[in-house]
Amino acid sequence: MNLIDFGFQRSNLFQHMPLFDEISYVGCNEDKVRQYKVIREEQPCTLLVLNFVRGDEKILWEAVEDFIKRSTISATSSVRGVYIFDLLTIDIHKEIKTFKHAQLSTLIINESAKLAAGKTRMVKYSSVYALFHKTVDYDWGKITFKTAVDVFKDSPDYLDLLIRQILRNFIFASEPVILLLNDLSQNPIFDSQNETQQSRLKKVIVDLIPNSIEFIPEIYIQDKNGARELLSGSALK
Q1: 3-state class of 10 per DSSP?
Q2: pLDDT tens figures, 65-75
Q3: If one looks up domain 58-149 in CATH, what number appears?
Q4: Paired sense of beta strands 22-28 and 128-136, if any
Q5: Which among 173, 110, 207 is positioned nearest to 121, based on CA atoms?
Q6: What is the Cα–Cα distance from 62 to 151, expressed in whole angstroms?
Q7: Rounded distance, CA 24 to CA 8, Å?
Q8: How many CB atoms lie within 10 A of CB 119?
Q9: Quick count: other Cβ atoms within 10 Å of Cβ 118?
Q10: Where are the alpha helices (DSSP H) in the chain?
Q11: pLDDT of 172-221, one tens digit each?
């Protein structure tokens, strides 16, 4: 299932990223890192994505998360079968002001009628992009809501530790690895004026180079101010 066909590359997740030719979803691990298989210029790559928010803004994410839950709960009585609604990305700062859960509920109900057991569709509402999967047919309805947003509890100085943790199993990858840290915070964690943070981030890159057999991982940090690719130091607007 090529998610580009459903407009996923136009989501807030990819607004500053280089274009891909194909994006397929693989899954999510226990650290809330989502994995995609992407094709870029005929080269298969592993794309790792972590949506995260700083600890003191957790309440904002929880409010938006509650909006989506209310939509799935409201839709449950009108669907038939067991479903999983897996939220891939959302612009929390936009939706905290404009979200209408009844509209999403109606969309979920309409999409459920098009799904056969074992099939998956992309649900798009405003900035919401979610995979909607029907597991089995029943004459009653159940919708399980899933999402993956990490809460960054450390000092911004230690953003590098997050990168090291995610990439620890991909140092010797046989194909290019792209890591996208998508910061949902209103007050972004990446700070070009934070000398300690920037020094530690540079050391991450230096340490990756001798340990990478063929492909050095590409690391992007994205927030409301744009995105940066750490190896080259280039900014993407």
Answers
A1: helix
A2: 999 999 999 99
A3: 3.10.330
A4: unpaired
A5: 110
A6: 11
A7: 10
A8: 12
A9: 10
A10: 58-76, 92-98, 101-112, 159-167, 195-211
A11: 777 899 999 999 999 999 999 999 999 999 998 888 776 655 778 899 99
